[in-house]
Structures are given as structure tokens and as C-alpha cells.
Amino acid sequence: MTHFYAAGAPTLDTASVRIARAVRGSVAESLAELSRDSAVSATTESRSLRNLARGCAVRAVDDHVGQLAAEGEATPTETEVNESVGLVLAMLFGLGLLQRYVDDPNVENIDVTGAERAFVTYSDGRKELVGPIAESDEELVSMVRAAAARFGLAERRFDSAQPELDLRLPDGSRLSAVMGVTERPVVDIRRHRLPDYTLADLTELGMLSEDLAAFLAAAVRAKRNILVSGAMNTGKTTLLRALAAEIAPSERIVTIEQALELGLDKQRDRHPDCVAMEARLANSEGIGAIGMAQLVRRSLRMNASRVIVGEVLGDEVIPMLNAMSQGRSGSMGTIHADSSAGVFRRLAAYAVQAPEHLPLEATNLLIAGAVHLVLHIDAVTTPDEPPLRQIASVREVVDAEGPLVVSNEIWRPDASGRARLGAPLRDTTVALLASNGYAERSRNGSTTARVWA
């Protein structure tokens, strides 16, 4: 059950915010001058630039506090002074007053509607109303525009001509914003609290059993093509990263996303040979757009061992399935669906809307030749407890027969909703996974004799 309560006093009324707002402009000007003198580009997120900014902020805050004392005004505490310095840096390099929530490891979602209303959802199910987080809607939009200019592979627009924005923040969180099509600007941030988790880590959290973790690890090593399905906020991206952790460091990975989110290319020790590609919107003249489908086709020329599509959303489905069935074994992706069986309907719906207008029978043949496994995640809610995200179903694709994709639910939900052994694996799959370290277990938990570890 989600607990809701309003937070404390509006954040704009605190001494630290007032100080940060008062000195922000002068700090930006000083930083620009020092950046030119120090040959440090003001457009980078380098440590040198941040160190310069911190020095400028500390001096500006000290001067402002001294001025307040000289005028007989109340002076801030040491804590408020330190907070104001941090806020200045957040205004220059981050998301202003929202940054404190982005940096909080216990925050899962941040949903903003207008300058004065922001809801923060925590991992324990609490939901707080905080704010205001900007003085006006115009300032909120300016903050988002500044982030769009700094983050991502290329600067992204956010204005009346381009009222939608999807962006990956430096910590891996996903920002989505709209304006113009809503009465007030809306900003939603989905934080990825578990960016580097492995299957073993997710097992400890209760997302899956040890046996299923061993099965999935072997499936990745065996280069099975895998789709991860589920509703929003069920942990699809987290599971995809954990599956990718089983890929050998020697393999070349190409990731394709609407907005950078996976971050596998940042995990240099785990994935030293990884290229991240991001779709690009058209410029102000309406040219230069590069869609997901085009990037998937491009990946076929990049000598990739595996292609990972962050989220299947539309017409990229056909080139993705073609890539999976044309030598890019071990590829993976996520898709929104309400069940593992529902994935096939969603893929068919995307395919018929694509420029190729692929009919159902042809789509099913393509699915049967490309996808090996479908994993479905459910978020189980219980009273007074945060949602428990767990793998509920695993399907093995067998074949296609006309309007149907034939599959076996080899792991199916038990009474608690967690995946347990269901239909038996096909002999060919058993042999393949066994050669990659998986010992199939029988329904009573013992290792099947005919399978070796």
C-alpha cells in the first residue's frame, strides 16, 4: 500500500535557496571567465570545470553572507551555507532544486506538474508532495532546456515546435518532459537505483530464484535471443543490464535506444567493447532525424556480436527481428506487455504499423525464427509493503502456425506470482544450456540425471 503525506515547508522559502538564487548569476559569469583563462571548455562536465565552479560558488556565497551581516540581516547557519553552495552547483550542472531528489538513492520516481507541484516516490512506497521546485513554469522549462543542451549525445530541443523530450541524466536516470500539449509543463524522472546489479544481486532481492538465475545466465552464454516484457516501472531495464552482465568482455555490443538509458558503454570493466547509439530528432528545419529502425540496420554493419534494443516501441521491430535471425544471436531488448504471451501480439501490432505492413502470418514466422525466450516481470503489491518486482513467466518460442506463435511456458507463476518450473524444455535447448553450465532441475528440486553441469 502506498503511503502519502505532504512534505514540509516549500523549498523556495529556505535561506539556502534564497542565497543560491542571489549568487547564481555572478557565479556563472565568474566561471565563464575562469574557464576561458584555464582553457577549460564551459560545455564539458569535467572535474576541472566543477572544481572551478565550486570555488566560485564558495567565494560568492561568502561575499553574500558578509553583505547580509553588514546590512544587519539574519545570517545563515554553516549548514545553510554549505547547502547553498551545493544548490548553486545543481543549478549550473544539474536540475536545480530537483537534483537533491535525483541524488537520493532511496527515490524511485519524481513527477512534476508545474513549478509548484512535485511528487516524489520512494523505494519503500512512500509518496511525498514537495515543492515548489521553481519560481515559475518558465523557469522550470528553462531548467529542462539547459539539461537537454548538456546531456545526451547531441543537444535536444524542448520548445513549442518540439514539445516532447526524452533524456538520460548522468546518473542513468530517465527524464521525460512535455509542454504545450498540457496546461502546465510536466517533467517525469524515473531513477535507476540498481544500475550495476547482476542476476545474483537480483536473486538476493527476490526477483527470481537461484535456479532461474542459473538458467538465464546459461541462456545468455548460449546466445539465446531474449525479450524482457512487463508494465512500466517493473524493472525491465534493470533485468536487461543484469542479463548483459553475463556477456563475455570479449564480445562487441551495440546498444540502440530512443534516449540513452542502459549505460552499458559506461561499464568499461564489464563491457570494454560497447557502442551506444541514440535516436536523433529532426532539427528546426525538419531534417536530420535518425530513427530506431535506421540505427538497428546500421548496427548490422558494425561487427557487433550482440545488438541490444533498449525498448521496442514501433517500426524498429522488423529490422530487430531480422537482425536476431541473421547472425546476431544473443541479442536482447525490452517491450511493454501485460504477459509473456502478450508479447507476440504486441510485436505483431508494431509490425503491421511499420512501413513494410507485415501481415500477421509473416510476422509470426519472423518471430519464431528470431526470438528464443520471453521473460515477463510482474510487480506484486501487498498491504503496507513496497511493490515486489519478480519474474513471473518465461516462454520458449517453438514455432509459428498461421495466426499463432507456438510457445511453451517453461517457467510459470506459482501462488505467490513468482516463476517456477513449468513445461519441460525441449531436448535441443537442454543440451545447449547444459553445454553452457546449466543443470536442469526436476519439479522436486533435484538435478535431472540426463543433464550435466
Give a structural overview.
The chain is of the alpha/beta class. The protein has 3 domains: 11-93, no CATH class; 94-193, Beta-Lactamase (2-Layer Sandwich); 199-434, 3-Layer(aba) Sandwich (Rossmann fold), CATH 3.40.50.300. 34% of the residues lie in helices and 21% in strands. The protein has 13 helices and 16 strands. The chain has helices at 15-37, 47-70, 78-93, 99-102, 137-150, 199-204, 210-221, 236-244, 292-299, 317-325, 342-353, 360-370, 427-434; strands at residues 3-6, 107-113, 118-122, 126-130, 164-168, 174-178, 186-190, 226-230, 253-257, 274-278, 306-309, 332-336, 373-380, 388-401, 404-413, 419-421. The protein has a 9-stranded mixed β-sheet with strand order 10-9-11-12-8-13-14-15-16, with helices on both faces. Helix 1 (15-37) packs across helix 3 (78-93). It is elongated and about 85 Å long. The two termini are 42 Å apart. Residues 1-10 and 442-453 have low confidence and may be disordered.
Sheet having the most strands: 9 strands, mixed
Mean pLDDT: 84
Structural class: alpha/beta
CATH-level-2 architecture of the largest domain: 3-Layer(aba) Sandwich
What name goes with the CATH superfamily of the largest domain?
P-loop containing nucleotide triphosphate hydrolases
Strand content: 15-25%
How many β strands by DSSP? 16
Note the gap between the termini. 42 Å
The number of domains is 3
Tally of helical segments: 13
Low-confidence stretches: 1-10, 442-453
